[in-house]
Design a protein that fits this description.
Elements: E1 28-30, E2 36-38, H1 39-48, E3 65-66, H2 69-77, E4 79-81, E5 92-94, H3 95-104, E6 109-111, E7 120-122, H4 126-132, E8 137-139, E9 147-149, H5 158-243
InterPro entries: Znf_RING (IPR001841), Znf_RING/FYVE/PHD (IPR013083), Znf_RING_CS (IPR017907), Znf_TRAF (IPR001293)
Keywords: Coiled coil, Ligase, Metal-binding, Zinc, Zinc-finger
Coiled coil: 192-243
Length: 244
């Protein structure tokens, strides 16, 4: 939808009106036939139609283009009243700057920032409302540190609130201790399994070393027996040599 033409000061050129809603163009797009539309208006139209609402020429979303620069400049120069005029705002500014003004306008109706409060109030009166809002929160004046709503003042009991807070802290501490206990047990189990696995690997390595040592000793005994046999043969040969 476009800007209500009644908000504008002075004459508005017909070419700057949306061909669908007949208000002043908002976020405008132009068809090849040069008819201009608000973006929201033409997109909504093309959901159910495939032609221009003015001359019935066939158009498609892909054919829509931004407004010509000179038309865009004429549009931006138009002067209009703030939408909060009915609440007392007398600002008149260009269409190009109206959005920025209205985001900051002191007469804008904004919601109270306190959770649970449904009041809509002018921006300029917000601070005054927050000071008396029944949903405003503040720290207990008796020093217990509890944040209370104004509506709860009469029901607030520091001792009860502190006892409740203490119970919550105790429960949280118990939960954390249990979590730490489970985590430690899990780590110990993991380390125990790792040690058992390591012990098994070392035991296998020891058995392999024993086997290798046994084979080595067998080889040494065989070599010593061969050496004795060789020595005996030498002694026998030396004896035979003497006899000859």
């Amino acid at each position: 939808m476009g800007y209500d033409i009644e908000r504008f000061v002075g004459y508005v050129n017909e070419g700057l009106l949306c061909s669908i809603c007949r208000d002043v163009l908002e976020d405008p797009l132009q068809a090849p036939c040069e008819h201009a539309f608000c973006t929201a208006c033409i997109h909504g139209w093309l959901v159910h139609h495939s032609n221009c609402p003015e001359d019935r020429q066939v158009i498609d979303v892909s054919l829509l283009r931004p407004l010509y620069r000179y038309m865009k400049n004429d549009l931006n120069r138009l002067q209009l009243h703030c939408r909060n005029r009915e609440y007392g705002c007398e600002m008149v500014c260009s269409l190009e700057s109206i959005d920025r003004h209205e985001r900051e306008c002191e007469y804008s109706q904004i919601p109270c920032s306190n959770a649970g409060c449904t009041v809509q109030i002018e921006r300029r009166n917000l601070d005054g409302h927050l000071a008396v809002c029944e949903y405003r929160s503040r720290e207990c004046p008796n020093g217990c540190g509890y944040t209370i709503l104004s509506a709860e003042d009469t029901q607030h009991n520091c001792v009860a609130e502190l006892r409740t807070e203490l119970e919550l802290l105790r429960s949280e501490m118990i939960c954390r201790v249990e979590e730490a206990k489970h985590e430690m047990e899990s780590r110990l189990d993991s380390q125990r399994r790792h040690m058992v696995q390591k012990e098994s690997i070392l035991q296998n390595e020891i058995e392999e070393l024993k086997s290798q040592m046994s084979r080595l000793m067998s080889d040494v005994r065989s070599l010593m027996a061969a050496e004795r046999q060789h020595r005996q043969e030498l002694e026998q040969a030396e004896l035979e040599k003497r006899e000859l």
